[in-house]
Design a protein that fits this description.
With about 400 residues, this protein is of the alpha+beta class. The chain is built from eleven helices and 14 strands. Helix 5 (about 175-195) packs antiparallel against helix 10. Keywords: ATP-binding, Kinase, Nucleotide-binding, Serine/threonine-protein kinase, Transferase.
């Protein structure tokens, strides 16, 4: 009898305990289910957010969704980043040629782990390029972010970068004046799109010959947007304490004060224009010029009425002396000391278009190019990739080139 009583007591004692435990477990399970639901909703919202951004429609009304590649696909395409696939190396990493399983050729920009370009610059480049669609801008196909790897996958351009041609004595002889003029206009149109015609206003900040790529038809495409800055439509100027870019292509106000605007890119375009005409680097040391660089040397010759003396010798037999001279004048307009005095890319496009339509004696009447004053960069040491000890000297010579 005592055993029965004890058993009943134990049962009555266990029932509340079991029920309580069951309720607690159910409550926890419910919370877990709720957390899982919230997590899924959050993840879904995040995916939808990224998806909606990726599905934005470009200016031509086409889908501009950005694909993401697995690391294994990129490794297979580049033969595990083999040396034979290496196309070149920039400030932020190495570029490799790749071949996808469907036969499409790609260029893979592999961000160096110890480079100055971190996650922010990488995201910046992806965000900007994915929204840009223009004939004279390199096309971003995909990107890869896996483990410690960050990579951008671009269209492959077989003719490499423009500096590969223009600064090589043999290869630049292949560039007739007509082809160089087409490249000049193409670069100008690409910059104009960034400054004015795209949905966003973008300052590139690192325009130079090595960042101009050439496709199979030698059509120029602007690349490398890691240093680019996004402006609001009404914003005209920005500033930074971290000056990035390439000395020799930097405008005076940006190199010395960190101020940048669309006129900073105009300055870089002017330097690039003079390099295309002469086949020489702006950073080349000129012993016979008081300014020691290409911009100053061209300006000195312009004042003496001898600007054609510095034109690439391979163009000497060209019958386009008037066009070349006008392009030199436009280049000098772009590298003026004051940003306010420099023309906009739209004005430059108009001047170049007028040149393309005019010829011979009609050239002077067709183009009304203003006078200019020029800023001369004087470097006290030769420019290196990592360091430049520079001094800048400005002077405003006579506006009359014959004086």
């Amino acid at each position: 009898m005592m055993i029965v009583i004890l058993a009943v007591g134990v049962v009555f004692f266990m029932i509340p305990t079991i029920c309580s435990s069951w309720l607690i477990m159910k409550k926890r399970k419910g919370k877990g289910r709720q957390c899982k639901t919230l997590f899924n909703m959050s993840s879904k919202a995040t995916r939808l957010k990224h998806y909606s951004k990726a599905k934005e429609i470009d200016e031509n009304g086409e889908n501009s969704e950005l694909q993401f590649f697995d690391l294994s696909i990129v490794i297979a395409a580049t033969n595990n980043f083999s040396f034979t696939n290496k196309l070149g190396r920039g400030g932020f990493g190495t570029v490799y040629k790749g071949l996808l399983s469907n036969g499409q050729e790609i260029a893979v920009k592999r961000l160096s782990r110890n480079s100055g370009q971190g996650v922010e610059e990488f995201k910046n480049e992806v965000t900007l390029i994915a929204k840009l669609q223009h004939k004279n801008l390199v096309k971003l196909l995909s990107c890869c972010i896996e483990e410690e790897e960050k990579m951008l996958i671009y269209e492959y351009l077989p003719n490499k970068s423009f500096d590969y041609f223009i600064f090589d004595e043999t290869k630049r002889s292949m560039l007739t004046w007509r082809k160089r003029f087409e490249i000049i206009i193409g670069i100008a149109r690409g910059i104009l799109y960034l400054h004015q015609d795209s949905r966003l206003r973008i300052i590139h900040r690192d325009l130079k010959a090595s960042n101009i790529l050439l496709d199979i038809d030698m059509i120029p495409k602007i690349s490398d947007f890691g240093m680019a800055r996004l402006f609001g439509k009404n914003q005209v100027e920005g500033s930074t304490n971290r000056v990035v870019g390439t000395y020799g292509y930097m405008s005076p106000e940006y190199a010395m004060e960190g101020l940048f605007s669309i006129k900073s890119d105009v300055y870089s375009f002017g330097v690039l224009l003079l390099e295309i005409i002469t086949g020489r680097r702006n950073s080349t040391y000129y012993h016979d010029s008081p300014s020691f660089n290409l911009v100053g040397c061209v300006w000195s010759l312009w004042r003496e009425g001898k600007a054609l003396d510095i034109v690439d010798p391979s163009l000497e037999k060209s019958n386009h002396a008037n066009e070349v001279l006008r392009c030199i004048q436009i280049g000098l307009l772009c590298v003026q000391e004051s940003a306010i005095d420099r023309p906009t890319m739209l004005t430059i496009i108009f001047m170049l278009a007028d040149m393309a339509e005019a010829s011979g004696e009609d050239m002077a009447e067709a183009i009304a190019i203003p006078f200019f004053s020029c800023a001369l960069f004087v470097f006290t040491h030769l420019i290196s990739e990592r360091y430049c000890d520079s001094a800048v000297r400005y002077r405003k010579p006579s506006l009359d080139p014959k004086r």
